[in-house]
Amino acid sequence: MASKLQQLTSKACQASQFIAKHGTSYHKQLLEQNKQYIQDPPTIEKCNLLAKQLFYTRLASIPGRYESFHKELDYAKQFWKNRKDLKVEDAGIAVLFGLECFAWFCAGEIVGRGFTFTGYYV
């Protein structure tokens, strides 16, 4: 346990040294590449205005999302009603889509655990 703590400490130290050495240049480069998104002057009032715009824009988009959701739901209901007319190809595509969703879920879980398969750090 002590050796793992020592390894973690040394890796954290290396990371902080790397950030101290390269962080400023990366920060300047990032700001330069994205200067079209920066509001000038950066005041509290401007930040509050942007936050309110984001909130109300997202709030205004809810009816459109709600309508899209209901269209998808109606499509699924129609698909279920006409399941007797279902072709093997359509069923195969649906199964492959379900498997792909499950695979992406599994990949997300693995990435979330730090690319370990057991969930424990070795």
TrEMBL record:
It holds the Pfam family ATP-synt_G. GO terms for molecular function: proton transmembrane transporter activity. InterPro entries: ATP_synth_F0_gsu_mt (IPR006808). Keywords: ATP synthesis, CF(0), Hydrogen ion transport, Ion transport, Membrane, Mitochondrion, Transport. One of its GO terms (cellular component) is mitochondrial membrane. It is found in: Mitochondrion membrane. GO terms for biological process: proton motive force-driven ATP synthesis. Belongs to the ATPase g subunit family. This is Mitochondrial ATP synthase subunit G protein. The lineage of its organism: Eukaryota, Viridiplantae, Streptophyta, Embryophyta, Tracheophyta.
